[in-house]
Amino acid sequence: MGSMETRPARHIRLARLVTCVAIWLGLAGCSWLYGPAVELPDDMAEAVERPGIGARALLRAQQSELELASWGPALLTSVESLGAGVDASRSDALRAAIRRAYAPQRLFDRMATSVSASWDPDAARELLEFHESWLGNRILRAQSTRRDARTLAKFQEWSRGFELARHSSARVELLRRIDRALLTSQTAVWLNRAMLDAGLGSLGESLPPESAGPIRALRQRYAGEEPGLYALGEDQVLRWNLYALRWISTADLERYARFAESPAAQWWVVGSARAYRVTLAAAGEELFQALRLRGSY
Questions:
Q1: DSSP H helical segments within 167-262, as ranges?
Q2: What was the pLDDT predicted at 240?
Q3: Closest C-alpha among 146, 14, 157 to residue 78
Q4: Which of 14, 241, 249, 292 is deepest in the core (most CB within 10 A)?
Q5: What is the CB-side half-sphere exposure of residue 260 using CA atoms within 13 A?
Q6: Is 183 left (phi over 0), alpha (psi -120 to 50) or beta?
Q7: Which is nearest to 201 in space by CA: 185, 181, 215?
């Protein structure tokens, strides 16, 4: 009996786990030195002049599809944590509706459409030119190995003995400055919370009021946990970048920080955040409609 975990404790542990997954997906990874090459557009002028092409090129360069591909599984995991709160006779229909509404290619297409709608060719050109530069290419190559389990294992081993005082204060401040400019850690938390809340909200609205209690309770627990996750996200992003970008000189990190604060980079930060919101709202609405047409789950 002493080893059994209460349901609220399981929910809180799950919420932290799902958020940590989102944080990891938002970080830059690194294999030996810089990682594999990242595919960029062959025709820069075409990518700049044609928003549909350019938006997809920038999203692929930033590996947004990896983040989007995590949404469906994260929502399924969260729903499955309800256990008996989900009607077993309708669980297959629920899973199918989630997989369809959160299909990675559908999400990616919506993201690209939203980015295209606020396209700034001058800012896009600066972004693509930075990606093609020596420094930008190294940053992208570091990000490209986020899926590498060996890299994650090495980082976890490195992180076990982490002491902030061992690292240059100037370097730490540069990485924090980059995080603040690009909103990396904040986005990893708020986007994950918003995605789960939209999905669970759609599920709860499709149920009779008397059956929606477990969903409402889970959303409340997630909402209560959110404020404390931002410090966790900031710490994890800092640790990871200290590890992953250790091959980048402090002078180059300064260059990267200036670029992250530039109007072109800020256009991307704002535009991609808006696109994420549009995409998750559309997915939540599609899930709601699918469940309503099926007579709830």
A1: 169-182, 184-205, 213-244, 250-260
A2: 87
A3: 14
A4: 241
A5: 19
A6: left
A7: 215
Compute the residue count for the chain.
297
Q: Which of 219, 228, 162 is nearest to 194 (CA)?
A: 219
The residue among 205, 216, 181 whose CA lies nearest residue 289 is: 205
The residue written with tokens 């009607």 in the block is: 87
- Model confidence at 289, pLDDT cuts 50, 70, 90, reads confident
Is the overall model pTM greater than 0.85, yes or no? no
Contact between 260 and 62 under an 8 Å Cβ cutoff? The reply is no
Number of Cβ atoms within 10 Å of the Cβ of 102: 26
Longest Cα–Cα distance of the chain, Å, equals 66
What lies within 8 Å, CB to CB, of 251 at 6+ separation is none
HSE-up of residue 154 (Cα within 13 Å, Cβ side): 13
Cα–Cα dist 25/27, whole Å: 6
